[in-house]
Amino acid sequence: MKLEKLLERLTYQCLQGSTDVEVSGLANDSRQVRDGALFFCIRGAVTDGHKYAQEVTGKGASVLIVEEPVEVPETVTVIQVEDTRIAMALISAAYYGYPAEQMKIIGVTGTKGKTTTTYMVKSILEAAGYKVGLIGTIEAIIGEEVIPANNTTPESLTIQEYFRCMADAGCQVVVMEVSSQGLMLHRTAGIPFEFGIFTNIEPDHIGPAEHASFEDYIECKSRLFRQCRIGILNADDRHLEQILKGHTCEVETFGLSERADLRAQNLELVNRPGYLGIHYSVTGKLEFDVDVDIPGKFSVYNSLTAIAICRHFQVDVEQIKRALKGARVKGRVEKVKVSDNFTLMIDYAHNAMALESLLTTLKEYHPRRLVCMFGCGGNRSKLRRYEMGEVSGRLADFTIITSDNPRYEKPEDIIADIVVGIQKTDGAYVTIPNRKEAIAYAIHNGQPGDVIILAGKGHEDYQEIEGKKYPMDERVLIQEILDEDRGAR
Length: 489
What we know:
By secondary structure, the protein is an alpha/beta fold. It has three domains: 3-95, 3-Layer(aba) Sandwich (Udp-n-acetylmuramoylalanyl-d-glutamate--2,6- Diaminopimelate Ligase, Chain: A, domain 1), CATH 3.40.1390.10; 99-325, Mur-like, catalytic domain (UDP-N-acetylmuramoyl-L-alanine:D-glutamate ligase, 3-Layer(aba) Sandwich); 334-488, Protein-Tyrosine Phosphatase, Chain A. The protein is built from 15 helices and 24 strands.
């Protein structure tokens, strides 16, 4: 493709060379450069792409996109822009033929609920006959192809490639998680979002490698509502006004309060052996009753968000109800049937805030015992270990402390740190380093009316030990345990 075509939506200065050259591919990683490639010199947290200018031109890069002049052979075209990340997003969209403009793009942002909401939307729209692509924390789904995710919101190069594949596969709609990092790093720049969704916001992702402050975190989230046509936002979130600051979109709201355009009322927890769910009534812009097979108040918000989106696609109410009744999200309060007497679930809760929210929700169902099994990752903050230990000790009736991605640390050392936290409470606990043995203990000691939560791994299907990822899926472990039990009888 001609360089001048790739630059058509960009403000730039040509420092040397010509824009009348062919570009064979795009790269922001020096290892991916081939003859005739265009290379983006990106300033990252770890390295600066400008340092690789000589290396990539030696590998055949014919065009460089830069923020400052670089010394390269005169045969190389050098294009200077204000921000190479924004340029990468816009050039990538042009390279793939602006595929987002051929579909309706739904962007979901917020601290919690993004993943579950996107899967609910996909489930409802597919039930109504739409072909839907998905990009998120767990995976990207393009037709029958499933690609495991590295980031919640991939780099713009990858997003646009996915969009192209989705459009070519006949997708009419794409629902994607839009992280604050993705917005801050302009990974979604230039995407014409039809809908921007705000679930909620709490202090998170604050730190040297992420956001400088909570205010910065909010500002990054708010960018979505200057880039979408219709904003659909949680009316109950106390930071709503800040999120909407400077918005350019039409605004609709959902929530439990009377001021919301679409409301949930008459919430009723549903609890029977081996099952937890919730029932509620939708009122406002639509009127009907809903049953969701995922427990907790957050399931009301997630499903109500999905309803608020899907009503714009003229989906029949009965289709919405059926789709929500059967909606499942891997590793998000995911029920795994092991007994008719107690309930066992898998969830991704891997920090104190998420674990507290999860356990508080499950306690509302008044189980005979709330049993929590979890571990903490190695080579990460010790504070997380103390906090998670304290949360589980305070909220669960019994805690099973085990291993979770020990990385380069000894599982026993991580467990000892968790014990420091749990001993600040009166919570009963046991330590079982081997995760399969810990799950077996939880199942074999389950009592009628118990709710058992396996926290921390969620959708992950590996255990990371000393730099290597070993296959380990909790669903597989559970099945192995049940098979072994049957064989021992």
